Amino acid sequence: MKEDEMYAYIFNSLIFKRWHWYGHHFMQRLRGGSHPFAESILEACLACDTAMPGYAKRVVDLMAAASGREKNERERDYEQLLQLLAELLVVRQVVTFEWSFPVSFHSEPRAAGSKRNPEITVAGPQFHLGVEVKAPALLEHQRKRAQNETQIPARAFTPERLKIVTQGKEFTLPRDNPVKDFLISADAKFAAFKRADPNFIGLLVIVWDDHVYEPISSLIHDDAGLFTDNSFARDANGEPLRFSNVDGVVVIRHLHQFVNIAGDRGPVDGAQHALDYGRAGEFPWKVFIENPQGHAVPEVVLECFQALPPSPVLGAEYSPKDLVWWFRM
């Protein structure tokens, strides 16, 4: 698909037939100009379409479907669009990465006997990789985080201790249930692939906002992390949920880039455009958290995602937290 064809398809979609969050951005093309947010989406769609024909139209259809809602439902559409952009960000990185051996890409594939599918699989002579991409609904959480002085990123305190720490004031709870749900979903999607190929690698990619200590705490905090024996998520017998089909999680801080650039505030932290995944060795870092119950993830996959082990060496936000106190300046 070519650029003009892509724009023609967008102009004929519901993006221009009903109210849409991104209608303004694409409209600039009809006015003889362009908008960097729309151009970034277009470039990413075309890059993915080259590797997987039909992908670009599918993204536009999904984007257009989040349109024309009543005002009180628009936030839900807004967050669905952020999820779609997160998928596009990650899939573009996978298909444009310079793999050192021949690979083939498959969009939303299904294993035999399953109706569930990850975003993309990568098949090569060395491995068969599945990638599931998730982005949390954060708008309400972000409001609370901005209002409350105290934040509890992980379930690290007993109720008695929590009362002492918060001193009776409002506080922001952990946003760990979405991380748990993401793992449950990815585990189910990868299960049939693992049955067909025991060496299949299942990777969950979580695209968060700038506060990446939140998903990191949810996954590996010693007192409650989902990948620890003290996990807050338990089965009917009281045993920790294990998510054995998910071999690891990549955490990326990028949702705020979509929001900033769509809102004409421009990118931050060296991003060049809305769907700029970044470059290896440059901030902001992406982190990889291995599942102790999973297989080893090949080094080339971590290179593709530019993923490093979480560590305070990367910055304070790259390690689990018990407590955050916000001081307003």
What key phrases describe this protein's structure?
329 residues; alpha/beta; seven-stranded mixed β-sheet; three-stranded mixed β-sheet; 11 helices; 10 strands; 13% strand
- Rg, rounded, reads 20 Å
* N/C terminus separation: 49 Å
| Distinct helical segment count | 11
Major β-sheet, in short? 7 strands, mixed
| Strand order within the widest beta sheet | 1-2-3-6-7-8-9
Structural class: alpha/beta
The average pLDDT value, as a whole number, equals 93
Structure overview:
By secondary structure, the protein is an alpha/beta fold. The chain is 38% helix and 13% strand. The protein has a seven-stranded mixed beta sheet with strand order 1-2-3-6-7-8-9, sandwiched between helices. The chain has a three-stranded mixed beta sheet with strand order 5-4-10. Strand 4, helix 7 (159-166) and strand 5 (171-172) form a beta-alpha-beta unit. Helix 3 (36-51) crosses helix 4 (55-65). The longest helix is centred in the N-terminal third of the chain and has 23 residues, at 74-96. The radius of gyration is 20 Å and the shape is globular.
